[in-house]
Write a structure and sequence with these properties.
Shape: elongated
Structural class: alpha/beta
Bound molecules: zinc ion
Strand content: 15-25%
CATH superfamily of the largest domain: Cytidine Deaminase, domain 2
Largest sheet: 8 strands, mixed
Radius of gyration: 27 Å
CATH topology of the largest domain: Cytidine Deaminase, domain 2
Number of strands: 8
Number of helices: 7
Order of helices and strands: EHEEHEHEEEEHHHH
Distance between the termini: 83 Å
Oligomer: single chain
CATH class of the largest domain: Alpha Beta
Number of domains: 2
Strand order of the largest sheet: 7-6-5-4-2-3-1-8
Helix content: 25-40%
């Protein structure tokens, strides 16, 4: 099934660093190379978080350079990091300096990789052309081709913590007054007291 209805297309996001790495791999090799990546699922999108280049054998006639040994090493490394292998659902490969399209071999690979659940596939070349597709076998065979994607900045926890400390050190925030909290005014608005200064009973006698 081919679906070109954009309203039903899944939303794909790729972490900026993962995308940079992907293009760097493609540009670094004059022959067709490939690899895998991690995908996280949320309620409204699929997010590609990391890209990997397994050991592989590349020749001018290679159609699927990924070797069992290379995949095995990658899987062991992911398990050592406590990463669930079910996240390994991104398959990417390069067409080097040739146009991007899904060859017969590519379609066979996609079919196999998506046979249990789903697979997100990316093909790119050194002219920075690309195609992205999603294939799912559950609940039935579905293909979304020529998918757009959004690039997202991943959270840098180390940087976030450094910045949080700097903000705490350099930024003084005024606490909202009691009355502005009661009236729902935001702290940066003029205090209610400025417009309607409170006066005590003694002052009231001087302001008949
Ligand atoms: Zn291909």
């Amino acid at each position: 099934m081919q679906d070109d209805d954009t309203s039903t297309r899944p939303r794909i996001r790729i972490h900026e660093r993962a995308l940079r790495k992907l293009w760097a791999y493609i540009e670094a090799c004059p022959q067709e190379i490939g690899g895998l990546g991690l995908v996280e699922c949320s309620a409204d999108a699929l997010l590609v978080t990391e890209i990997f280049l397994p050991h592989q054998d590349v020749t001018p006639s290679t159609t699927d350079p990924l070797t069992a040994g290379g995949i095995d090493v990658l899987m062991k490394a992911l398990l050592a990091r406590g990463i669930c292998l079910s996240k390994l659902r991104f398959w990417w490969h390069s067409h080097a300096d040739s146009p991007v399209y899904w060859s017969h071999e590519d379609r066979k690979t996609v079919f196999n990789l998506s046979s249990q659940d789903f697979c997100l596939s990316f093909v790119g070349n050194r002219r920075r052309e690309h195609r992205l597709r999603l294939d799912a076998s559950v609940p039935f065979r579905t293909t979304f081709d020529r998918l757009p994607f959004e690039t997202v900045l991943e959270t840098d926890r180390e940087l976030a913590e450094l910045v949080r400390k700097e903000v705490a050190e350099k930024v003084r925030m005024q606490k909202p007054s009691f009355i502005s909290r009661v009236l729902g005014a935001s702290p940066d608005e003029s205090p209610v007291e400025d417009a309607f200064p409170l006066i005590d009973a003694a002052d009231r006698r001087r302001f008949p």
